[in-house]
Design brief:
By secondary structure, this protein is α/β, with parallel strands linked by helices. It is built from ten helices and five strands; from the N terminus they run E-H-E-H-E-H-E-H-E-H-H-H-H-H-H. It is globular and about 50 Å long. Strands 2-1-3-4-5 form a five-stranded parallel sheet, sandwiched between helices.
Amino acid sequence: MPVNVTIFEDNAKFLDALSLLIEGTEELNLTGAYESTEDLLEKIAAANPDLVLMDIGILPISGIEATKKILRVYPGVKILIETVFDDDNAIFAAICAGASGYILKDNLAGNLLPFIREINEGGAPMSPAIASKILRLFRDHFPAGELKETYNLSKREKEILRCLVDGMSYKMIASACDISFETVKTYIKRIYEKLHVASMTEAVVKALRENLV
């Protein structure tokens, strides 16, 4: 079944180019293409996307604030932030807002479909220029402290949580741990329940903040 994709991009030419790319990709279905975030939730309701491509600098609601608003109402939607900048503060804000990935625009043309596939497999794709900054950013914001709570995580659950912190997708975790994709999903669901979190981002932040791995 094709992935429903909605775009929010304030550059009209780039919006047109992305729209053509998505419409020409069999695995994707374009359900909306917008130059502003005005009436954001109404647009999301009409488009019913599985995934949103979100320009970080769009107006009147910024891409980061739009991400927060969408996920509060539609927590199952995946959001891929796209930008021309690799600013540390913007990266950190986007990930903490719940974005599933952060992509530089010059990487999108040849990598959009692999990025979307990775998100659907539980990964969090990043442009090469971005990926190396993520762990440093989280560790700078959440320096390791004393371990106060173990949350009764098993050895295997800690191993899989470590993989999430390292940015591995479900498929990569399955290969690294020599278990099935479905078993990975079961472990991650159990980890979320024990940590009292609802997303990969929350799990990674909690793991780093509380020195769980």
